[in-house]
């Protein structure tokens, strides 16, 4: 298996020199300028890693333990407690199943207290587990519902044809239960801290982005602008498409781009693969303001996205990636000493 860490691999200089000789002079010149810029950047950097970063396999960008959202008052002054705890599992009961696409479901679970909230900040994820034959099977999941959704928590899952967790959830009926604990990590969004929040996601991996969108939409006082590029194979695989489309039409804070690679003539969104050609027209300029870019997709698309961001002048410490290999992917594009983003907005 090829290693993700480029710097643990040896360079074949003979092959490298052979390939460079094939380049035209203008291409060599462009490549030389790019390499010099990267050298200057890397030589002027320290390790790029803050204390406690890159120590948690599932949450490598975080610099501290996940901060829970405790009790808070709603606008009417009513106090709402947190239903989940990071150290112990809480039983949740299934109340509704929405079939989004083949193998993709949205599941709504009731919290033990109808007046409670999940206890997660926007952007955080939880650990869910099911008991199959006396053995627990677990998965980390990002809630789709906002913290202000009292008494319930919504999860979006791609249910594979194999795997004990997927099969158990697929066979769940209304009234069945699973257990959750959290928050366990993830981005910790705070209203009003950013000028622009740019998010790029694919398929069911968009659940963290959808949770952030819901949270911002539910807070009229939050002035953060949101740009969301959402790609899937077909329109049917875009979670919450109708709800997101309606939100984008009625709330000027949101700018959504929906893109699919397969569609019929009825599709009115963008069409194509997710690559530099489709991303660059969507991405806002790297203008030095308080911006954060969040990526929720697989490693291949992450590399494509990072390469486009790098070319446009985005800084590595303004980019947060969900998933266990985000740090390695940042370094693969920005260099071994690239400064990392943290789990905080700024």
Automatic annotation (TrEMBL):
PROSITE patterns in the cross-refs: FAD_FR (PS51384)
Q: Where is the FAD-binding FR-type domain?
A: 87-190
Quote any Pfam family the record assigns: FAD_binding_6
An example of a GO molecular function for this protein is:
oxidoreductase activity
Q: Which cofactor does it need?
A: FAD
| InterPro entries per record | CBR-like (IPR001834), Cbr1-like_FAD-bd_dom (IPR008333), FAD-bd_FR_type (IPR017927), FNR_nucleotide-bd (IPR039261), OxRdtase_FAD/NAD-bd (IPR001433), Riboflavin_synthase-like_b-brl (IPR017938)
> What keywords were assigned to this record?
FAD, Flavoprotein, Oxidoreductase
Under SUPFAM superfamilies, the record lists: Ferredoxin reductase-like, C-terminal NADP-linked domain, Riboflavin synthase domain-like
CDD domains listed in its UniProt record:
cyt_b5_reduct_like
Where, in this chain's numbering, is FAD bound? 139, 166, 207
UniProt keyword Zinc present: no
- Family membership noted in the UniProt record: Belongs to the flavoprotein pyridine nucleotide cytochrome reductase family.
- Could you identify this protein by its name? NADH-cytochrome b5 reductase 1-like
Taxonomy of origin reads: Eukaryota, Metazoa, Spiralia, Lophotrochozoa, Brachiopoda
